[in-house]
Design goal:
Bound molecules: alpha-L-arabinofuranose
Shape: globular
Structural class: alpha/beta
Distance between the termini: 25 Å
Number of helices: 9
Strand order of the largest sheet: 2-5-8-9-10-11-12-13
Radius of gyration: 23 Å
Length: 516
């Protein structure tokens, strides 16, 4: 028996941006996944794959990050604008992609995708092989009103209205493929780029928001991630300007040391190892948040009109399960193409809930990646587009966007062990919006159904519920069986008023809603 106490205390606002996505020119994410071209027999909207656009619109990710990832560090945006038949073909070797990229999907195509799915764009600039000038010109091209050479060029290319891009990533993983930099070198570079960022809309109340995203640490390396953050913060503290608005931590739940473990064929040890691995992200988030707060506390407010209390948002620009050999090569599939089983759905639910739970510490998180790469919400195969179990977790979790986190205490038995420690049977999270309480109940036991007693502070009435479960924990959706794992109505919890009892199938995710 598991016991869950949900209180009335409101413990923080859940930023919708915690449900954001990331896309990159890697494997078949962009080409075939998102972009098929206007002449394709596959139904498309100006070359964007229509079924992918429709599915992503259902999720409406609040922010979409592009063009990388590592790809951003060799991307030259000018190659991706203007008449498509004049755009150069480049070689894309990113993570074993090893294929031509014809630049047909560039800035305008990305902006159209964002408009169609309701996402704000996040552009990552090229800090490694690009220049400060190239970044400034991309910003002017995107955000300036017409009447200037670059913004008029944008209008000539089809978009007279500025794109109004708020999020700009200044580099990607500069501690590795993004330059193998030391924190001091990165901050030196960051200063040159950030100091050159143009203003849009002047300095007054009409100023358009720009959020500069600095390179955060490799969340997978315990010592290096602390050293990176300490180093970056120390360097940044030497001068108070230029500002950094957000700090981008990356964390992958690696499952690459067990060749016998396949995405859709694993044993109980593999089930708990991967879930345990996903739980580590909560420790990383808390550690990084504390390091940032400690560093900010040392910085005094600058005198003069521009002085402001230093603030830096922690965000997670890339997260998800990474199965298979390094780079996932040798599978006969495009680079980093990965199926998604019920195990991945459970880790996605647990990961989204740890973001929700720490909504006072983290304000944005982008899943890596939306289509055909790693922990995807969509997989394409020829003319088919498959909604993965991960897709349905996002869809079921939508009511938490913009809601208030509620206090919760969970008592639950141990279901199994991973490399780091125990995995409990039941994980839970609750939020409230407009008088509706939404409760997530993840049964992380691979084999045992669970019962959970729910105790609320107030008497509530049950509204509805959904459950995501499968005939097998290894189950995935594919072309032959695209709806093997889809949400179904949940069994209504028994009880009334303040106390209810919910039945949770093994290896499942249940979302219940109650009216206050
Ligand atoms: O998401 C795949 C790759 O993982 C990204 O390009 C890079 O930023 C990270 O190492």
């Amino acid at each position: 028996m598991n016991h869950i106490k949900i209180s009335n205390s409101r413990e923080g606002y859940i930023s919708p941006a915690l449900h954001s996505q990331f896309i990159e020119h890697l494997g078949s994410c962009i080409h075939d996944g998102i972009w098929v071209g206007e002449d394709s027999p596959i139904r498309n909207i100006h070359g964007l794959r229509a079924d992918v656009v429709e599915a992503l619109s259902r999720l409406a990710p609040p922010v979409l990050r592009w063009p990388g990832g590592c790809f951003a560090d060799t991307y030259h945006w000018r190659q991706g604008i203007g008449p498509r038949d004049l755009r150069p073909i480049r070689y894309n070797g990113n993570f074993g992609t090893n294929q031509p990229d014809n630049n047909q999907f560039g800035t305008h195509e990305f902006m159209e995708l964002c408009r169609l799915i309701g996402a704000k764009p996040w552009l990552n600039i090229n800090l490694l092989s690009g220049t400060v000038q190239e970044m400034v010109e991309w910003m002017e091209y995107c955000n300036r009103e017409t009447g200037y050479a670059l913004s008029d060029e944008r209008a000539t290319n089809g978009d007279p209205e500025p794109f109004g891009v708020e999020y700009w990533g200044i580099g990607n993983e500069s501690w590795a493929g993004g330059g193998n930099m030391t924190p001091a070198l990165y901050v030196q570079e960051y200063r040159r780029y950030a100091s050159s960022v143009p203003h849009f809309g002047g300095f007054g109340p009409g100023a358009k928001p720009i959020h500069l995203v600095g390179v955060g640490p490799d969340g997978n390396k315990p010592e290096e991630r602390v050293a990176w953050t300490r180093g970056v913060m120390e360097e940044m503290a030497k001068f108070r300007r230029p500002q950094m608005d957000a700090y981008d931590l990356h964390f992958y739940n690696w499952n690459i040391s067990h060749p016998e473990d396949k995405v859709d064929d694993f044993n109980e040890a593999g089930w708990y190892r991967v879930i345990d691995g996903a739980l580590e992200l909560e420790e990383v988030l808390c550690e990084q948040y504390d390091l940032i707060q400690e560093a900010l506390a040392q910085i005094s407010v600058a005198p003069g009109p521009f002085g402001r209390k230093p603030k830096l948002d922690l965000i997670v620009g890339e997260w998800g399960n990474w199965h298979g050999g390094f780079m996932g090569m040798g599978s006969g599939k495009p680079a980093l193409w990965q199926q998604c089983s019920m195990r991945d759905a459970v880790t996605s639910a647990i990961s989204l809930d740890l973001f929700h739970r720490n909504c006072d510490k983290v304000s944005m998180a982008c899943a890596a990646q939306a289509v055909n790469v790693l922990n995807s919400v969509l997989l394409t195969d020829g003319e088919h587009t498959i909604l993965t179990p991960h897709f349905y977790v996002y869809e079921m979790y939508k009511p938490h966007r913009g809601a208030e986190k509620l206090g919760i205490e969970v008592e639950s038995s141990v279901a199994g062990y991973g490399d780091r420690g125990e995995v409990r049977s039941v994980y839970a999270f609750a939020s409230e919006k407009d008088g509706v309480v939404t409760l997530n109940l993840v049964n992380a036991s691979m084999t045992e159904a669970q019962t959970a007693v729910l105790d609320f502070d107030d008497a509530l009435s049950y509204l509805s519920g959904q459950v995501l479960e499968a005939d097998m924990p290894t189950a995935c959706n594919d072309v032959e069986n695209p709806e093997r794992v889809v949400p179904k109505p949940a069994a209504a919890p028994r009880g009334e008023g303040k106390t209810w009892t919910a039945a949770l199938p093994a290896a499942s995710i249940t979302v219940l809603q109650f009216q206050k």
